[in-house]
Fold these 3 entries.
Entry 1:
Amino acid sequence: MMADQIKKAEMDSLRARFRTGSPQERAKINAMLGPVEIEFADIRMVVDPRDNYTETCIWLEGHPPELKSLLALVKLVEQRNALVLDIGANCGAFTIPLALASGKGSRVIAFEPNPIMIGRLGLNVQINDLTEVVRIEGCALSDRDGEAMLNFRGHNYGQASLKEVQGRMRNGGTLVPTRPLRHFTSASENHDFTLLKIDVEGAEALVLDPILDEAKSGGWLPDAILIEVRHAQQWQTDLCAKILASGFEETMQAEGNALYLLKK
């Protein structure tokens, strides 16, 4: 066998063991791994399965974990001059496919405050030749300008949050700059369709409440919102009800996400 075939066979064996292994076995496999390049649907991504659930899933299954949600968004932006606001971009699991699917003149603004994940996101932007489409904003969106503690949870960088992480689950944190979403909404003037995807581990209301409140007096709204609703119990407001009251209709729930389209 050729060297790359041997490597592939070994990797497939590790994946099989990981799927059926005990937590101890999975920890041993994680210790053996490093960054791996995965290809799917003409997309290339370098992922590190050791410390991020999303990257582990891409390594294990060959595609991002929230595939139904991703495909629904791809359909919305395909061949359109779209602005995508990816709030909580992680390694680029949504950023990269949406940037590749959208039409001429499109822009993806990828918000990712975790310094480690910014590097991984930037690499995936580069290897897919998207440096002229994707702009990375290394800040956390919130309700104000300033700074906040980004808290790390366990060994999963994808669960970093501005929300407090309790007890031994907290694995340190880092100060990051914060900015309100309204600083970025004027970019939609140059595009035919604006999609907002948000997954910030329970801090969604901090980002969206000001925008939804301002919309009551004629403020800006995107054309579509995909929001993670797994942590809705942490919101201080009923964010889904506010989205509906702002003129959206819910068109899908899948994989812990809800998709809303603005009624025209």
Entry 2:
Amino acid sequence: MAKNAFKKLSEEKKNIIINAALIEFGNHSYNESSLNNIVKMTKIPKGSFYQYFEDKLHMYKYILSLATQEKILFFSKEAEMSKELTIFELVKVLFRKGIDFATMKPQYAAIGNQFAKEINEELKKEILKGANESGESFFIGLVESAKMKGEINNNLSTKACVQMFMTLNQAVLDEMLKHFEMENITQHETELYEWADELLDILINGMKSN
């Protein structure tokens, strides 16, 4: 997604470009975002951008991949520190950490939220393929470990379990976007935690009455 010329830039210059792209893509949909605005923010000649990225789409994919990597890294560190928890306890913690991520890494959270609201389905499908692979790898590790510890039935498909957790994660994100503005998210943590807990309870115990 990024050309070799970009990879060879100093970290300072890379960060200038990345931060400008995060601002632009975090505040606008893909179609409404402008490469010209990014150029103005960085004060780098527009021609130079085509040495670094093929076009706006390639830059967008690159920035989204950074946001995905940052979130996976954030979650992976939490999972590593919480090995003593069951997978269900850990997933509950990760839901809460997802809200922490949004407040601690607002620029990365903003671009993820803009992407979640995208109406260009072809664009979303193309970009989600790579992002989903990263998320799947993370949850596969959690599910396989949980099976070894006897927390999840070994007869269940790992793929199906992973899909359930990822769908649950998306449901919490959708609820955040539906009802709350990102900058006010910390004011509604209790409501979001309760929503996450309810969804997780359904996943663990099902919908059947006793």
Entry 3:
Amino acid sequence: MTDSIQITDRGAVREIRIHRPEKKNALNTAMYSQLADAVAQAGAADSVRCALFAGSQGAFSSGNDIQDFLNNPASGEDHPVAQFMRVMADFPKPAVAGVLGPAVGIGSTLLLHCDLIYAGQGARFMLPFVNLGICPEFASSLLLPRMMGHPRAAELTMLAEPFDAAKAYEYGLINAVLDDSAVEESAFAIAEKLAAKPPRAMRTTKDLLKRWTKAQVQEAIREEAALFMPMLHEPEAREAFSAFVEKRKPDFSQFV
């Protein structure tokens, strides 16, 4: 199966790999459901002490599969997208990410819910929401300003332009920039170190680090979704998505 979330246990590290290489690991509804299950199961399994997120064949994730997203828009708290966001935001164990190539949309906002992130020099990030006539998601409107300050968060979300790993590191989104060839094994080595530490102390430390914003994060996910989902059906988003599918520049001049 090419469209899947691949799960591999490497000792006490559970590797959760986004695998849809022909679409640069764009996520569809079925894959969100698999991701939600994978994260929930990793959180519940006593044998798992750390989760490691990765992509496939030189890409982390190019974001949502636009056509699938238009055919199956996120609606309601039971939708696989909402389920994944909730369980990931509450994941109780350390989470590490190794990023190669594109990390677009949720490929970037997923990183806000990981603890340690390592990216290759060729990694490219983007938060394209405003370009698509929609708003930020996955509590990024809360976490980005908190992490890097309003001016930098506004730059990334309002200009919505691609940025490289050096800028991601400068802005505090990732922990280190590595050679592309070293990213995955380096991220695994870090995950292995975390997995070897006292598990209760590790979970308590993570809980304390996130405790003060945990309720705010879940509220932000709901508030963003309440705006995001209706915006998908509004004229600005219809123009943006049509232009994307038709490979043309969108025209927003008629909107006020």
